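HAD-IIB family hydrolase, Lacticaseibacillus pabuli. Tokens?
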Amino acid sequence: MPFNIVTATSEVITRDRDVGAITALQAVENSTGILVRDPDNLPDGVQAIKGVFCGEETMLDQAEAGVRATFGAQYEVIRAGRPFLELMDKGVNKGSGAAHLATHLGLTADEVMAFGDEDNDVAMFDYAGLAVAMGNGNDAAKAHADYVTASNDDDGLARALQKFVL
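Tokens:
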């Protein structure tokens, strides 16, 4: 199963010389390129912020329990969309990121509105005063949301902003 490193500058590093479509998608989503490197031959100063198992949904579905059992005590293990299973330092997730940003801006959790559609948004939803899941989101995101709006394709973000902010 392909495993990639994402750096602090969003670069995608893989050792897989046969770069697949999911790794290419990951690079496009990060607006970056792909470095093919052996882990023992990484560029100087590389700071990995997360590791990502990536591949077809059914392959990750079969591997997810084993990945959680192997790495779950040491790392946050979260499904970020169907083709990505991410590993990050314990306590690093969208919820802790939202809390850090809110504190920096002088906001309380009650003043934070969060939008999301996947498992990796659940921690952020649990933090935010108002959690809005997209209509095209998965069941876990919708279950943790305070409100479910229309899908991305049906202007769900704009509709929720009109309902709660404007």
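Strands lie at 3-7, 12-14, 34-36, 48-54, 75-79, 84-89, 113-116, 130-133, 147-148.
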